[in-house]
């Protein structure tokens, strides 16, 4: 699936835009000055498949901690800054690979010039984040409510500030908690700007509501070739976000080496405790980077037939199940051994 062609922007060793890769992004939920905890969280997110990480920068202590953080992680780090241009300068000096900052919100033109100058020196891109809930007062008054057109006007203001300073290493995002507004805004943006787009539905809620809203909005955009980086925002730990976004990208054929887990919904024919096995294997697969299909089926009636296209499968019976590899029944396994045997087969695949 070809992405819409955009300007290429380099973030550390990654190139956003100008290619068919959609990078997975997340954001730490720990205060950045607590560097050791932040590092631990980022390293865990890396093992799950996160490719870009964002941290907030609320004060100078946060900015100073970035030096320690970037020296202990492997993926690009984005520093999120609001209003205070001096924090942007400090984050860049500390080694941030990208900053998230709206140039129209950091005061005098000289402030913007200082940030742009340092970004040019360090080859650091800027992400401009347009949020439907925090548009400029006059734009909100003009339209009376958040609209895609208002979001475009806001973006044009910020982009123009950077372009007037001959700065073009820019990434844009147009987030809303309304998935339909997200679709409209990003489609307009893809026609109006040639900069890479970071996709997201903001304030999406719990795992369930976020998965639904984000799949509706971002799935539509991805299938239209729109988007170069993506975050699925979920309330709570960022580790919740990665499985959802990987599943979405996999379903859109935009990511490789992601396992595919098939599990039946269960019915009256199910005679074994299937849910704990499914849950544990799902968790295990989050750190497996292979193109492998694993099926866990609830009964021996339809299970063997439905699992025959899987690489490894279990078709459960009464407190036991048939282990199936590439459509062939290999052995019968007691339920208490299922998880261990499945993990062994996945590891050996």
From TrEMBL:
The pathway that the record names for this protein is: Isoprenoid biosynthesis; isopentenyl diphosphate biosynthesis via DXP pathway; isopentenyl diphosphate from 1-deoxy-D-xylulose 5-phosphate: step 5/6
Q: Is the keyword Iron in the record?
A: yes
UniProt GO molecular function = 4 iron, 4 sulfur cluster binding; 4-hydroxy-3-methylbut-2-en-1-yl diphosphate synthase activity (ferredoxin); 4-hydroxy-3-methylbut-2-enyl-diphosphate synthase activity (flavodoxin); iron ion binding
Q: Does the keyword Iron apply?
A: yes
The residues that the entry says bind [4Fe-4S] cluster are 264, 267, 299, 306
Documented EC number(s): 1.17.7.3
Name it.
4-hydroxy-3-methylbut-2-en-1-yl diphosphate synthase (flavodoxin)
């Amino acid at each position: 699936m070809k992405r819409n062609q955009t300007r290429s922007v380099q973030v550390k060793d990654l190139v956003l835009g100008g290619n068919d890769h959609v990078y997975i992004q997340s954001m730490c939920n720990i205060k950045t000055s607590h560097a050791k905890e932040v590092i631990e969280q980022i390293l865990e997110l890396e093992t799950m498949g996160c490719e870009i990480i964002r941290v907030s920068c609320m004060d100078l202590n946060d900015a100073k901690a970035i030096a320690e953080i970037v020296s202990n992680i492997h993926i690009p780090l984005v520093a999120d800054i609001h209003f205070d241009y001096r924090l942007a300068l400090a984050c860049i000096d500390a080694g941030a690979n990208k900053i998230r900052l709206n140039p129209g919100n950091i005061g005098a033109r000289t402030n913007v010039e200082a940030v742009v100058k340092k970004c040019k020196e360090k080859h650091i891109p800027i992400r401009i984040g347009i949020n439907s809930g925090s548009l400029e007062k006059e734009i909100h008054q003009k339209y009376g409510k958040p609209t895609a057109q208002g979001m475009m006007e806001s973006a044009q203001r910020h982009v123009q500030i950077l372009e007037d300073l001959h700065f073009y290493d820019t990434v844009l995002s147009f987030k809303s908690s309304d998935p339909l507004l997200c679709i409209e805004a990003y489609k307009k943006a893809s026609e109006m700007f040639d900069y890479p787009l970071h996709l997201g539905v903001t304030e999406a809620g719990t795992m369930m509501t976020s998965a639904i809203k984000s799949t509706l909005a971002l799935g539509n955009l991805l299938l239209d070739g729109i988007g170069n980086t993506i975050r699925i925002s979920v309330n709570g730990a960022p580790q919740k976000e990665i499985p959802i976004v990987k599943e979405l990208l996999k379903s859109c054929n935009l990511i490789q080496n992601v396992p595919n887990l098939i599990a039946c919904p269960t019915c009256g024919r199910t005679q074994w405790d299937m849910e704990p096995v499914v849950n544990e294997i799902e968790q295990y697969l989050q750190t497996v980077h292979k193109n492998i299909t694993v099926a866990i089926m609830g009964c021996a009636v339809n299970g063997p037939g439905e699992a025959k296209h899987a690489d490894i499968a279990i078709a459960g019976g009464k407190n036991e199940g048939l282990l199936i590899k590439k459509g062939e029944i290999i052995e019968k396994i007691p339920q208490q051994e299922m998880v261990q045997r499945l993990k062994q087969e996945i590891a050996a695949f």
